[in-house]
Structure formats: C-alpha cells, structure tokens
Backbone:
C-alpha cells in the first residue's frame, strides 16, 4: 500500500468518524469536534488529490574533466547544468515567451563575447541590472541576476565555462572555449560556508 | 499528540554519537520512527499558533476595551475582560511550548542553533527583557481590571493595555528576525556583536513578515473568539446566554473580517519582497514545486471569505427583521460573484492530465481554463473577492439603520460610484495585464489593483462611520435567534484561518529548499528534502487539531470558575455613545429579545 493510499484511508476514516459524531452524539463539544474532523479530513483528501511533488536536494554533480574530449562534450555538460544545477531556466527562456521574467537567451552566444558572458554570470551587477524596455528612464528589475559562482547556486569556474560553451553552441556560434582551459575542479563552494558556520561565529552570508 | 509523545519518550534513545571515538561535532540528532523534523514541525507550529493567539487576543481585547470605554457600552469591557482572563493560562502554555521547542532545536540541530546564536545573541537578551516587561504588564492589566474602572484609573488601564500590545509586538518581531534571516540572509560585515545582530535583523523580508503576522494575529484572535462564541452559543441553555454568545460571535467575526480584508495586501507585499530578494525563491514558491500549494491556499481563503460572508448574511436575515427581503437579491449576487471568483482563483496554471488528454488539449494548458490559471486573473479575482466581502461588511453595518444626515443621499451615491468604478478598474487592469510584459504587470498593474481596493476601503469606511453616527435605528437587532449553522460557520472560519497559517508556515519553510539559512548554511541531514503536499497536509491537519484542543482546554480551565455563577447578561449601555456601534450593532440594543430556538 503506497503512502498516498494510506494517507487517503486515514483522511477518509477521520471524515467518517466526524460524520458518525454528528449523527449519533448529542453533546455539543463532541459534535463540534466531529465537525472539525470532517473539515480536516476533507482538507487532507483534497491535498492528496493534487500532484504530489517533493523537493529533493540537488545531487552534487561532479564535473569530470576526463569525460570532456571535445568542446561539444563541454557544451553537452553545460546544457545539463543550464537546466539543472545552474537553475538558469527558472528565469530565462531560450526563445520568446510571454511569461519570461528575464532576458531571452536565444542567440545570446552570438551577441555577446565569452568574457562578457563570464562577467555577467559572476558579476551580474556590473552592467545588467536595469530594464530598458520601458519608456523613459530605465527601471530596476524586480529581481536581479544572482551571482552564479556564489551560493545558493555556486557553479564552479569549469561549470560556468561549460554553460558558456552551451550558449555559444545553441546560438550557432563556434565554441571559443578550449578543453585545455578547464582546470582541476575546485571544492564545492558550499563547504566554506559550512566550515565558516562551524568555526566562525559570524560567517559572511553571501546570498543574493 | 501521539507524535509528540513518541518523540519526547524516545529522546533518551537519541543517537548521541556514543562510543569511544570522539569526534566531529554532532550536527544533527534524530528521533527513531517519528523523525526529528516531524517533532520540530509539530512543536514549532503549535508554538507559533499559540503565540499568534496570545498576541492576537490582547489586541482583540484592547480594541474591545477601548470601544467600550469610548462608547460607554459595558458589555465590550466585559468581553475584553473575558478574553484577557484567558491570557494568563494561554501565556504560560505558549511559553511552555517555546521552551520545548528551544530544547528540541538545541538537541536536534546543534550546528544551526550555534550559528544563529552567534549572530543573534544580543537579540536573545532583548527578547528576555521584553518577556519580563510583558509579564509584569499582563499581571497589572489583568489583576488591576476591577480596581481600575473609573476616571483616570481607567485611562491608565487602557494605557497598560497599549503597553501590553506594544511589548507583545516586539516579542513577535524579534523571533521573526531569526526566521526571516534564515530565508533572506544578508551580508554581515565585520563589527560588534550588536552591529552584526542588527544587520541580520534588518533583512529584506523582516518587515513584510512583521506586518503580515500582526494582521494575521488580529484575524486569528477575532475568529477564535468567534469560534468560542459559536460553541458556547450552540450549548447555551437560556435566552440570555444565547444573546450574549450570539453577540460575542458577531464581534469576533467582525474583527476577523476587518483584519482579513487587509491581509492579502500584506501577503502581496511579502511575496513581492521575496521576488525582489531572490527571484529563484519566488519562482520556487509560485511556479515551482510549491505552486500547487497556492491552489490549496486559494481554496482555504475562498472558504474563509464564503464563511465570513455567509455569517454576515444569516446575521442580516435573522437578527435584523426585514433585512432578509431587502437584501436577498444582493446576497445572491454576491454569492454568485464569490463562487465565480473562487473558481477562477483555484484554476491551476497547468492541468493534471494524461498524455492523451494533454495531446487533445494541445499541451498541459487548457485552451479556455488556461486563461484563468495565470497571475493576472488570480490577482483580479482576489481583489474582487475583497471588494465583495467589503460590500457585505458595509451592508451589515448599515442594515436596520436610517441615515438622517442631509448629505446622506449624496454620500450613498458617491460610495456606490466608488465601488462600481473600482470594480471596473480592477477588471480592466486584470485584462490589460495579459497584454503587457510580466514586469510591467507586477510592478504597476497588480500594485494599482491593490491600491484601488485599499483606496475604496479607506474612503468608504470612515464615510460610513460618520454617516451612521447620526443615523436612527429602524429595526432593533435581535440577539440569540441565529440558527445552529451560524455557530458552525464561526467554527469553520476559525479552522480555515488556522489551516492557512499552518499551510503558509510550510510554504515559508519549504521555500528555503535544502538550506537552513538560504544560500549560506546547507541542510545536510536526511531531512533536507521538502515533503509533498499530501503528507504535509496531514501534519498541518494534526497541528490544527492539537491547537484547537489546547485552546479548548485553555478556555475550559479559564472559565471553570464561572460555571457556578449566573451567566452574564448583556447590559444596556448607561452612558452616551461616543462611537457608532460596530458593524451591524445598534446603539440602543441589548434588551434580549425572544429567541426561536
């Protein structure tokens, strides 16, 4: 019996007990408790009837340089990072979309140099923090681009280069990053924050 | 209760690392079978709900005391006292759960608690001092009630009530800073302990949460008062008791609705700040794995709006003779409007469909319903529901009264126009929102909708208040004649608001995903995942049930001594009325009329 079925049975039982209390008990308090049980049971049953999605912590993906033989391999890894650990697709689209909150990245690899892309990811406030699509003075975006090399996303240099390779490939541009540019993977960027939390009274929070 | 009992009983069996090898500092401890997170979840939620109760009740009691003091109606003072009596036992129960929570947090999450203590220690001290001040003020406020009834003493007592709420407010916002820092931490520069604590306290979501919670506490206090009155009404034996608890239920519902109308605005501000702070977190909440949670939220808020309006409508039907026929069409129109709005609000953005169904629809978005699943539609109907409820509120307030001011007709036409124009404006902005970029819609259109509705409330409320000051009562309010379903609707409203609080607690906590402190301190325990809504709703229902039982126990203990006494009868006001009666009330009421139970 799956967990959902078990919970549904519990919910149904609670509703049943509530109905019985309302039907057969005369004491006001118990009747009210029965009424509350019906509401809570129904709430649980409705909650169980919608899609059940748990949020699992991301698996620590390792960037294995040994598997990267060509720039295309790098772009393939970059694509995975773009849609998973990098969380780029949460805000950006590739191609126009009515619901896009952030710039459309279609063809971005052809429009911008790799240096500019790297800076945009690691120092996003340098240029891109205003919206010029409105009339008059540029407005600030409701949310600014996060620092991709810092927590909570915390991509390593290799991972950022792979994402840039993907953006270039997706834009039909030749990939300008050589495999030899990839360095030895650094330790996961989460560790310093944890160590700091353990050892130092006040860590420098680097969110946002 | 079983979860708590199992959790507490199994504490000795915790995995303390044991053995001889000494070792890396313990980061987490667990409870077998139940799980440390579930125990913390239940205890923290109960503490938070009790805290909301003990902060909401003094606010509620103080408002009633001030209304009684200014308007000269003693029954408001009596009601305020009746609820303040609860505070002594409720306060200690809350503190008890706070202490249990603290010990469990230190035991289960030592690394996190060490981290937070290092940052916030100065505010712990302030918190303790505030508790001492709050406790002393509460003793003076409660034990001095009867001796501080006249003249300057009463003014001082009102001041004590203000102080009680003043300290309570700071008692609320200090822990808020700890919790909001976990969601929206800021860069902490080097500096003194106090400077760092202060910087961490002023994080981006601190004030939005403070405002949201203070309003929610008023709503909770009001609806719990209503539910208590509803239960007592159902079990009343005499007409006097029925009159008293009927009236108490109406005051509770009135205050609950009053807060409820402004609550969505505070929620909108909080959500906007979350997006401003971190778009990913906002998207996790509104478009990610928590998006379905907001369908449940819409359902609960919708039922709450329906329940509150329903109570108003049956109040008009039964308590104010003649109003049932006068307002029947309006009530029906408002019911239809509320149901349509609720249907749109609950429409999901993407539908649960099989592959075949999705292929027929041309994707997961239904060609027609998909239009209602977007934020533009939801913001519009949420604002319309507030407007409809506000209309109910004003109708109830004005029912049974005849305005005598010379400018009454002009004022009524003006109010009607304001309502109609604002409803049209909200709809136009909502439809227009489909054709502009999301940024424009969020920054300008949605904000404008909120401001329009807020403007309506801020215009019509004082205008009605002034208008009714000189109004004459045409139909005396008859208390104690409501049908039993009125009592149940008050209980339903209270359950909805408690469930909403538990649901949004889960949302706030889950929006941090696998972080204790978002982006800074990662959750590396086995409970780093957020459970699905079905499982979570089971815990929420359990917390709601336990909280209701605890509150029922507190009420039972606090009123145990009253049982031997004669039930209180609402007494007629003896002083001139300085204030108009609360919504639906009459300044000349209170002779309990016949009840037809």
Residues:
């Amino acid at each position: 019996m799956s967990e959902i079925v078990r919970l549904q049975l519990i919910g149904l039982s609670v509703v049943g007990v509530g109905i019985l209390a309302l039907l057969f008990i005369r004491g006001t308090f118990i009747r009210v408790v029965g009424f509350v049980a019906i509401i809570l049971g129904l709430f649980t049953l409705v909650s169980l009837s919608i899609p059940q999605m748990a949020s699992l912590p991301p698996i620590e993906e390792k960037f294995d340089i040994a598997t990267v033989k060509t720039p295309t391999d790098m772009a393939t890894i970059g694509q995975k990072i773009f849609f998973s650990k990098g969380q780029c697709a949460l805000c950006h689209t590739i191609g126009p979309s009515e619901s896009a909150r952030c710039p459309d990245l279609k063809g971005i690899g052809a429009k911008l140099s790799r240096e500019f892309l790297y800076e945009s990811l690691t120092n996003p406030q340098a240029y891109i923090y205003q919206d010029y699509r409105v009339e008059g003075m540029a407005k600030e975006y409701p949310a600014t681009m996060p620092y991709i090399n810092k927590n909570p996303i915390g991509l390593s240099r290799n991972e950022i280069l792979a994402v840039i390779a993907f953006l270039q490939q997706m834009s039909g541009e030749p990939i300008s990053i050589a495999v030899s540019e990839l360095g030895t993977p650094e330790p996961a960027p989460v560790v310093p924050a944890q160590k700091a939390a353990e050892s130092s009274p006040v860590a420098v929070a680097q969110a946002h | 209760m079983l979860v708590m009992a199992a959790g507490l009983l199994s504490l000795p069996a915790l995995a303390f690392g044991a053995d001889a090898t000494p070792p890396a500092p313990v980061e987490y401890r667990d409870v077998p079978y139940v799980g440390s997170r579930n125990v913390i979840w239940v205890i923290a939620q109960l503490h938070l709900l009790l805290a909301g109760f003990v902060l909401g009740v003094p606010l509620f009691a103080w408002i009633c005391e001030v209304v009684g003091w200014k308007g000269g109606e003693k029954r408001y003072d009596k009601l305020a006292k009746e609820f303040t009596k609860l505070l002594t036992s409720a306060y200690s129960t809350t503190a008890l759960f706070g202490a249990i929570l603290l010990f469990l947090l230190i035991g289960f999450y030592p690394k996190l608690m060490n981290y937070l203590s290092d940052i916030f220690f100065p505010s712990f001290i302030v918190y303790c001092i505030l508790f001492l001040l709050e406790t002393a003020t509460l003793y003076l406020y409660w034990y001095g009630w009867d001796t501080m009834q006249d003249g300057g003493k009463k003014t001082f007592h009102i001041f004590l009530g203000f102080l009680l709420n003043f300290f309570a407010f700071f008692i609320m916002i200090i822990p808020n800073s700890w919790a909001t820092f976990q969601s929206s931490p800021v860069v902490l520069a080097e500096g003194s302990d106090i400077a760092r604590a202060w910087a961490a306290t002023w994080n981006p979501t601190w004030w939005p949460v403070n405002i949201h919670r203070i309003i929610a506490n008023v709503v909770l206090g009001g609806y719990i008062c209503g539910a208590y009155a509803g239960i007592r009404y159902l079990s009343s034996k005499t007409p006097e008791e029925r009159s008293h608890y009927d009236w108490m239920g109406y005051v509770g519902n009135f205050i609950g609705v009053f807060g409820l109308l402004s609550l969505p605005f505070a929620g909108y501000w909080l959500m906007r700040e979350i997006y401003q702070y971190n778009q990913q977190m906002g998207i996790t909440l509104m478009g990610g794995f928590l998006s379905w949670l907001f369908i449940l939220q819409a359902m609960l808020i919708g039922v709450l709006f329906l329940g509150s309006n329903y109570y108003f409508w049956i109040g008009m039907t039964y308590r104010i003779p003649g109003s049932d026929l006068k307002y029947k069409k309006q009530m029906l129109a408002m019911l239809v409007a509320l149901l349509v709005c609720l249907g749109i609000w609950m429409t999901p953005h993407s539908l649960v469909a099989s592959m075949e169904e999705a292929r027929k629809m041309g994707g997961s978005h239904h060609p027609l319903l998909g239009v209602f699943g977007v934020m533009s539609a939801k913001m519009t109907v949420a604002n319309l529901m507030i407007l409809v409820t506000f209309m109910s509120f004003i109708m109830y307030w004005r029912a049974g009264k005849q305005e005598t001011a010379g400018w009454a007709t002009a004022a009524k036409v003006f109010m009607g126009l304001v309502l109609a124009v604002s409803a049209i404006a909200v709809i136009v902005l909502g439809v227009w929102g489909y054709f502009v970029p999301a940024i424009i819609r969020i920054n300008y259109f949605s904000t404008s909708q909120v401001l329009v509705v807020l403007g309506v409330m801020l215009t019509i409320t004082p205008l009605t208040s002034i208008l009714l000051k000189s109004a004459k009562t045409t139909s005396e309010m008859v208390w104690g004649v409501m049908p039993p379903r009125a009592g149940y609707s008050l209980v339903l409203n209270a359950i909805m608001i408690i469930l909403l609080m538990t649901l949004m607690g889960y949302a706030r906590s889950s929006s941090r995903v696998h972080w204790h402190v978002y982006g800074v301190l990662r959750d590396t325990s086995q409970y780093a995942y957020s459970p699905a809504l079905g499982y979570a709703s089971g815990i929420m229902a359990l917390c709601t049930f336990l909280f209701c039982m605890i509150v029922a126990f507190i009420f039972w203990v606090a009123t145990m001594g009253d049982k031997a006494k004669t039930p209180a009868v609402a007494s007629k006001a003896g002083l001139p009325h300085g204030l108009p009666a609360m919504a639906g009330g009459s300044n000349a009421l209170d002779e309990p009329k016949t009840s037809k139970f």
User: Anything to note?
Assistant: Residues 12-18, 567-597 of chain B have pLDDT under 50 and may be disordered. Residues 1-6+36-322+476-568 of chain B form one domain. The longest strand of chain B covers residues 515-517. Chain B touches chain A through 78 residues (CB under 8 Å).
